[in-house]
Amino acid sequence: MGENEMIYAFSPITVISPGGFLAVSYLKSRETTEDIDIIIDPQWTGDKDIILALRELFSSVGKKLGLDRKWVNDDVSLFLTQKAREQIFDAAGNQNIVLYEGPNLRVLGAPLEWGLESKLRRINSKPDHPKVPTDIQDILIILKLLIERNNGPLNRQQGLTLDRVAFESNH
CA-based diameter of the chain, in Å? Predict the structure, then answer.
């Protein structure tokens, strides 16, 4: 990343990983992932030059490693409003699960509650989806971590606030 002057000038760039990278490196709920989903820091969403530079950089690294050009992708961001992205980033910063930290890139784990909710939604809406078995493994680990963090089971109110829309309001 340090070779790209634009990215280097704004380093370290922070991204959030809500998927397989979090599951493999932090949750330890599985050994591999197909790709690394990221959400790029909301301060850069309006800067097409930085976004393009990051995408090109990730693609070129993947090519050098013999990986698919979208081995790192921000496709999950397509469904997030700017406000939701900011709130997810704030929650990830407060949670402070650092998956990777280098001189030019910092990767934080997505908020566990948001990951739980996303996986539950996918299972509910697409029960035959090929990722359901790994989603179930991830859900069990996330629930265990949330129970430990909360010193007890999630209460009804916590369950009801597991809603992406909550990132749009003041929950």
Answer: 49
CA 131 distance to own-chain centroid:
16
Q: How does 74-90 read in b/e, with b if 16+ C-beta sit within 10 Å? A: bebbeebeeebbbbbbe
For residue 111, is it left (φ>0), alpha (ψ between -120 and 50) or beta? beta
The per-residue pLDDT for range 34-89, each reduced to its tens digit, is 888 899 999 988 888 888 888 888 888 888 888 888 888 888 888 888 898 999 99
DSSP 24: I
pTM of the predicted model, to two decimals? 0.84
Token pair, residue 106, equals 């910092």
Residue 3 has phi, psi (to 5 degrees) of -75, -25
How distant is the alpha carbon of residue 8 from its chain centre? 22
Cα–Cα distance measured from residue 33 to residue 67, given in angstroms and rounded to the nearest whole number: 12
Per the CB < 8 A criterion, the answer to whether 37 and 73 are in contact is: yes
Check residue 66 and give left, alpha or beta (phi > 0: left; psi -120 to 50: alpha): left
